[in-house]
Structure formats: C-alpha cells, structure tokens
Here is the input.
Amino acid sequence: MSELTERTKKYLEEYDGPEIRIMEVCGTHTHEIFRQGIRRILSPKISLISGPGCPVCVTPVKYIDEAVYLALESGCTVTTFGDLVRVPGSSMSLAGARARGARVKVVYSPQDSEKYASEHPDEQVVFLSVGFETTTPSDVLAVKNAIRDGISNFSILTSNKTMPGAYEAMRRSTDAFLYPGHVHAIIGTGICSELAAAGTSGVIAGFTGDELLSALAVTVRKFSEGKPFWVNAYPRVVTDEGSPAARALVDRYMQPCDADWRGIGVIEQSGVELRDEYSDYDSRRKYNIPEFKTEYKTACRCGEVLQGKITPEDCPLFGKACNPEHPVGACMVSGEGACSAFYLYGGKL
Ligand code: SF4
Here is the structure.
C-alpha cells in the first residue's frame, strides 16, 4: 500500500468534523466500496447511502410486464442481459415466461441481439434496452446498424434513463454525491457545476480502491469547508466536455422523455426514447403494447433503498424471504443492487 493511500485511509478513519452523508449514486461504486472493505474503515461521522444508479434496480415493474407481454402474447424472441430475466414483474418474471414456453435469450450486447435477428429472419427479435448514459450509445448503435443492414425483425424496448434528473430528485437526501465516473465520461462535468451553484455538492469518482478512497477523502475535506463544491477526482477519464460523439449519436436517434423509476416514480425528462422516425425499431410502438398500470404489492422496500432513505437491512424481508436465490425485489437480483451488496459483503461492514 502506498504512503498516500495510507494517509488517505487514516484521514477517513480519524475524521472528526461535521457529520456527512455521501450518496454513492452508482451500483458499481456500492459494490466496490464493500468489496474493498472501505465502509469498515470510515469514521462514524461519515455515512454512505446507496442511490438509484443500478439500471436493473430502477427498471419499473410495468417494463417487465411489457417484456413478458412481448414474449408470451406477441410471440417475440426477447433478448436481454442476464440480470433482467429474474426481476419480478407483477405476475411473473421473464424466467417465468420462459418456463411457459416463451423465447427469452441472454445476450452480451445489443449487437449480439441484432446479429441474432439477422440470422433468424423468421423471428421477431426484441432487445431490452435498459441503462444509463454509459450503455445507451451501444443500444442506439444496434438500431443504426439494423437500419443500415435492412434488418426489419429487430427492435428495442426502451427504458433508458439519464442521470441529471435523478440527481435533481435525490439532492435533498444527501450532503454530497459520489458521482459515477463512467457516466460523466459521456456527459461531462457541466451538471456538477450547475448543481454546486444550486447548493448540491459532489465529487466525480473512479472505480479502483485508491480512486474511491481519494474521492471520499476529497468529499469529506471539501464538505468541512462549509460551502457547496464539486471536484473531478477522475480526470484521467472524465473531461469537462465528456464525449460529444456519444451524445451526438444518441441525440440523432433518441429524444428526451419522462421516465418511471422503480420505487421512486416518474421523474420528468429523465429518460430517452427513440424518435418518431425510428418507430419501426421501437418495440412499444411496433407491437402496440397495451398500457400496463401495475402495482407491485409486496413488502419490498426497494424504492426507499434506492432513495437512500433506508439501508437494505432495514427491510423486514432482507436475508429472510429475500435473498439472491429467491429475490423479492430488483435490488437483490442485480449484480449492482444495494441489497445484493449488503447480502454478499455482510451488511454494515
Ligand atoms: S431486501 Fe429484497 S425485499 Fe427488501 S428492499 Fe431489498 S430487494 Fe426489496
């Protein structure tokens, strides 16, 4: 361990300034902080709370119902990343639909899905397009390539979200955000500066143990100065302008829309959907999916976990009725979910 890392750890261990709540917005940060044992060394004056930055966790129940409808009623082949298969819908998950004979395939990228569509022209192939600014460009690229290659049996079911709306919705739940570095590699730093001007602080963080320790120490140090702040603590990847090329690609094919966040509700203009001219590639419009007004009636408290109002251990189902083998809510299914992190790495450790 380097001398700098030792000094940073010591600072975080011995911190005795004003109490601070830091929201690690991103599920990857939550898991990495646990995995590196960072929670264990923090002063009692520093609390970490988990936020809404796990794409699977914030995917609403009605989206799963739409995917199940496409698989069972429309006879489509639904292709998706593995985590989504086990997320409960209002009546069943995609795994349940598969058990009833639906075609549900796990793929590793939207490009795999588009390739599958080109190789199976007799099937209508849907890709579940779920994610944040980091993955949306890749989803759009698959649509672009399908148009270029004349593949008409491929479409995407969008539930793509954008982070600035979530920051706005969550800003009163925390003293400072630990901003996800990979998102800001795309969107740049403008939003951090705007939020700081409006009184909300945050630090852009990378993903290694040293980067996380250093971002946390910077957060605590700046917070004790008593003024709103923002800092880019991941400059080797994040620039002020982000990636204009990735944003231009998304803007060409998608437009902003209101988005429903599981357990949180609709946040205005916090999502993107395909523009009207690409409606043939939009599964929702292509297959006239009916409006699902579903409520998920369980004791699952994912919504409060995702807003940092409770920790997973405050949920009465945690580790009992709900565990990774038998997840009740999305936060326990996803590899980036806060509940699965607390379960895997031992709660408040
Ligand atoms: S422990 Fe399970 S039931 Fe409770 S909030 Fe987390 S995912 Fe939902």
